[in-house]
Structures are given as C-alpha cells and as structure tokens.
Amino acid sequence: MTIRPNSIEARDVARVMHPYTNAVVHEKVGPMMIEGGDGIYVIDNEGNRYIEGLGGLFCASLGFSEQRLVDAAHRQMQKLPFYHSFGGKSHDTAVELAERLVDLAPVPMSKVFFANSGSEANDTAMKMVWYYHNAIGKPNKKKIISRMRAYHGVTIASASLTGLANNHRDFDLPIDRVLHTECPLHYRYANPGESEEDFATRCADALEQLIQKEGPDTIAAFFAEPLMASGGCIVPPPTYYEKIQAVLQKYDILLVADEVICGFARTGNMFGSETFGMKPDIITMAKQLSAAYQPIAAVMVNEKVYQALREGSGKIGTFGHGFTYGGHPVATAVALETLKIYEERDMVNYVRSIMGDFQDGLHAFADHPLVGNARGVGLIGALEVVCNRETKEVFDPSWGVAAHVGERALKHGLITRALGDTVNFCPPMIITKAEIADMYARARLALDETHAWLQ
Ligand code: PLP
C-alpha cells in the first residue's frame, strides 16, 4: 500500500509510535485505521467490516457497540467525572465494584485494590508480595517465580515476570528477583511418549528443584495465568496446578493468579482459577472486567495478605502505593455495568452453550497441513503452525508464516493475532454459533492460501 501524503495514515506514521509494532515496517505500510464497531465486527476507514477474532486484545467481551456501557459512562461523567481514592477518599461505584468482585471471587477474598492496566495490577501484586513478607518478618523471601512464555505485562516488574524474549531483549530485563520455570505446554516440551500427567509431575519437580537451588527461604510467590493466553494459548495438562500448588504449600509460597484474560467467563467459568482448580492468595484482573470500554484493573487479596498489608501500613504510616486514576469513577461505573450485563445474560452459561462449537471448529483444523496442534478451553484457542507435522519443526521465524496467515485472514475480513508460531482466537463472548462458523471459514481460507504460498 502506498501512503497518500497528508492522509490520516501519513499523519500516523509521522507522529504515532505504536506498541508491539516494527517501526521500520510501519513507516512503509502505515496503520490500519479502525473507525467504528458493530457487535463482533470492527469497521475500517474504507468501510470494510472485520470479525474481531481476538476481541481486540482478548478483552472486548461484549463486542464493539454495547450501548448500556456507553450510557453508564455518560451517566457517571455527569455525576462525578473524577475523584481518587488516596487518603481514605471514596465513591460509591468503587465500593460497589469491590463488593461485587469479592462476591464473585473463586476463593474467599477480602479486599480489592484498583489500578488501570493488567501490567499495573501485576506490578502492584509484586509490591504487595514484598511488603507482605516484610510485614510478617520474612524479609528474605523476595524472589518471584513465573514461567517461560508467560505474559504478565510490560512495566519493568511485570515485563520481568513475562517470559518472552522480545519483552526482555535490549530492555535489560528481567530484573534479578524474578526467575522462570518450565512452560507447561505438553505438545512442545514433553519428552517422547511422556503422558500429560507425567509431564505435569516433571513441571512440578522442576519448580521444586528451582526452589531448592535458590533456597526456599528466598522464594516469595509464584505468578501464573490459569492458561497462558499470549504465549500461544498454553493449556496446562491435567493435574498440573494440583502438583504445583502442593510444592508452593510445602515451601510457604504465595500463589498469584493472573486472571487478566481468563477472568469473567472466558474459560467457561467466572474465573480461570475455577476451571483449573487454582486457589490463589492474590488475583489480578483487567480487560473483560470492563469489557475493555474503560481502562481498569484490580488486585484482589485474601484476608491473610490483607492483614499483613494493614500491619505494614500501620507501622509505616501509609500504604505508599496507588495510581491517580485507580478506581476511577467512570471506569468503575462501566465495570459495574459490565458485571451486571454478564449476570443478566448469564454469560458463564452462554459461553458454555457455544464453547463446544468453538472448540470443535478449532480442532477441525488439526488435519490441516500447516497445523501441528490445535488447543484451547472455553472461548479461547490457538493453532500452532509447523512446517513438519511429524517432527513438529517450526518455520524459520524470518518467514513470518503465522503472521502471513493473519494477513490473509485480514483480506477475508477476519482479525486474528499471530503470537510466535500460533494463530489465536478469542472472539467477543457475544459471538453466535453462526458467527463462529463464519470466523473459522475465513480462517480456513487464510490457512489454505498460506499453504499455497509456501508451495
Ligand atoms: N496479564 C495478562 C495475562 C495479559 O494478557 C496482559 C495483556 O495482554 C497483561 C497482564 C497486561 O495487561 P495490560 O496490557 O493492560 O498492561
């Protein structure tokens, strides 16, 4: 595409620096300008409609035209457009949202701390973990374990938790308090002939060995996203969390569940922790909390953690952490309305009623010559693209084969996202069975054309 001088595309190239974008390529190809939304579709500035097969960034659960959320924001803007929560100030929507979240929590929880993004929520959780251990007199427990291929955000701390090379390389990360253990992707990392359960045991053993090597008295917390969405929809094998949690309990290590993507019905339960049997001490959430209509995130802590934070703040004189916009009235009002909609439309059961079609459609790609593995849970899934289905060999990354599938999909009116060697699906949860079939028909064209391109 040539970029017309003085067009909005040219102005974008001149002035906007994009996240997760190759700036050199972007200067040549320019942006894709999105102007509107309608249900599961977004519309570009030439009027083309696209199924948003990734719900934006795994977040637009109610699609792109939910009037009730617009109205909730408008009402709150008129009533109280801003106030903060510092120094004991509060407002009703933040209180109601905190109450609602504690009610919905998959395990007993005590308090909610608001932030604006998933990264901030995970940063906050890390700081709470350190503050907690200082407060309970275990100041040496400072190291945090995450997993290779995990995604927990991009701030200095949360990017350190993230276990992906591009988030570390040349950013001088990770920081040295963060360690990474095995990624629980059986398809890629199991030994030949190893069962899923044996692989889960090996992952838990590897965690224990890491803890032993570093010294159990130095390990503070384990961060885990129930299924690892941005790493390429990595679904842990059966018994994985059971075995991991036994190790954490043995060494008195906190579990933090990152529910930023899995939270709010995505996996067929309100939280991914329920789907995978996790019993976290701290839960972080964002994205579908407000259906992405407002930036908001939350950190929920159990009573044990809260009591220590309370003690610490009493001793020091304040809990010296907080964001100007944390618990913003408009964001909390929109999140509350989102949760009302989930309840009224019985979103968990709606997802359950369509996830069979979603997963069947995904697994129907397992025979495709480019697909080595189809995997997913609930309404999220990915296809791993390989050049040899027998050996699982991947294509040379410089060929950008998964990205090519994404480009072809775009031509057929479907937005997906290539993450490494995977093509990912996480549509708005309001999608219908007919729309799921349409989405996969478009994805099949993209895969077939990519296959033909490679011949
Ligand atoms: N945690 C998980 C599991 C995520 O998928 C993401 C973003 O995709 C984040 C944290 C970071 O969230 P944000 O981009 O809002 O900072």
From TrEMBL:
GO terms for molecular function: transaminase activity. The keyword Transferase applies. Gene3D superfamilies: Aspartate Aminotransferase, domain 1 (3.90.1150.10), Type I PLP-dependent aspartate aminotransferase-like (Major domain) (3.40.640.10). Pfam families: Aminotran_3. Keywords: Aminotransferase, Pyridoxal phosphate, Transferase. InterPro entries: Aminotrans_3 (IPR005814), Aminotrans_3_PPA_site (IPR049704), PyrdxlP-dep_Trfase (IPR015424), PyrdxlP-dep_Trfase_major (IPR015421), PyrdxlP-dep_Trfase_small (IPR015422). Its cofactor is pyridoxal 5'-phosphate. Belongs to the class-III pyridoxal-phosphate-dependent aminotransferase family. This is Aspartate aminotransferase family protein.
